[in-house]
Amino acid sequence: MADFTELWAGGPRFAQADHFKLGTDSVLLADFVNTSSAKRGIDLGCASGAIALLLLAKSDKLHMSGVDIVEAAVELARENMRENGLEGRSSIIHGDIKEHRSLFTAGSFDLVAVNPPYFAAGSGALSPKSGRDAARGEMQCSLEDIVRAAAFLLRTGGSFNMVHRPERLSEAFTLMSRYGLEAKRMRLVCHKAESTPSLVLIEGRRGAKPGLRIEPLLILSNGDGSESEEYKRIYHR
Questions:
Q1: Could you tell me if 103 and 149 are in contact, meaning their C-beta atoms sit under 8 angstroms apart?
Q2: Which of 35, 104, 132, 219 has a CA-to-CA distance to 125 between 20 and 30 Å?
Q3: What are the structural domains, with CATH classification, of the chain?
């Protein structure tokens, strides 16, 4: 039986997949996503459904789909939805993102959210466990595969939301432009004010006009190592 815990006091109950633990990056991405006008969203590579669950908690008007290639993770994501009474507002399927054209209808989503593998094939420090390899490295799905799928799935004006590493920002923007996703909003994440950014949060819009807004740095901790006020807000401290 899955081991469920509350993500915050009174918040959604969640059980984690063995191969992909809920990290700060997924939590920050869910907070970054603008759900105000979205009715249908999808989490690409959803693992145990954390991002979908957080977005459903954020908006009661939203229906979230999820897709993942790891069958055990899909089953757990479905359990997480059932545990929170969200079966009617969610649809989690077992499938390969690269097969998106056979899994979904073009333009059927208002938003895409994705916490993708960070390391290109042949680079990065990967776990020897195959499940974690798939989660951290582009063993089965590349950044281009993800951007291509998102462009197909989004309606015109729909939003593409991704967390990634800053060193791949140029590549991400190039691919987004190639597939018709215009970068509209970006926020860099730093552990401390004086630290080099460790993550970047990106929002693109399908078919939008050029114009990128760079938001203030998201700083996770104060100089003394204590949690920043924004970090505490995001984590419902």
A1: no
A2: 219
A3: 5-234 (3.40.50.150)
